[in-house]
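Hi V.,

You were right to ask for the full record rather than a summary. Here it is.
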Amino acid sequence: MTTPNPDFQSQGYRVFPSALDAGDLATLRDACDTLLNEPVDDGGNDGRHKIGLGQARRFLAHRHAEFPEVEAFLLSDKIGKILNKTLGSDGYLFNEQFVVKGAGKGASFAWHQDGAYVGFDHKAYVTVWIALDDATEENGCVYLIPRDLQANPDLDPHEWQDESNELNGYFGEDSGTAMTCPAGTIVAFSSLTLHRSGANTTGKPRRAYVCQYSVEPIIDPATGAPKRFAKPVSATTVAA
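Predicted structure:
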């Protein structure tokens, strides 16, 4: 085990510029576009919450095993190094999904902590948000509210919003820090970090890939089995 990056601990997130090369981007974009050709499923990524909104907000979830190159990327040394800098250890793939906001009508997503969607007590994990297209405020980039993870180690109360199919965990006036970035950037943030995303008002879809990793398998107490996945990831070396 290594020590998590102090900025990640004090801010709740860390940006990794140019984290993906052209081959990584092509692999993820091709898989995303293949899944986009399927009929729309508004079920989203959660059995309790239907968070999809048709073409406006699509969640293409839990399909990595169908794409060997995607699975290899998810469990790669490249990801392992990011986990060591954020979790402070190797980890386990917990969840993955492509998130696509439709051209000109891509819906926003409310303030929330990712951990609020799990449904039971668990250790905080890390979300690895990957920009597959340049992320701008016009096409629905992610916004974060920095969080000291040691001072604020708990989930905040969330309310379900029927009209927009989402949980909302913040009703304050902080607009957050916009994570505008080029394609290939990784924004890694804690499952305790409040974040939202804006609407896509541009003429092109905005694609992102969201993969999440835990320090240990997240076991669903209702089944005694891992919730979603528990595939190990490790790094052979850790860069400074």
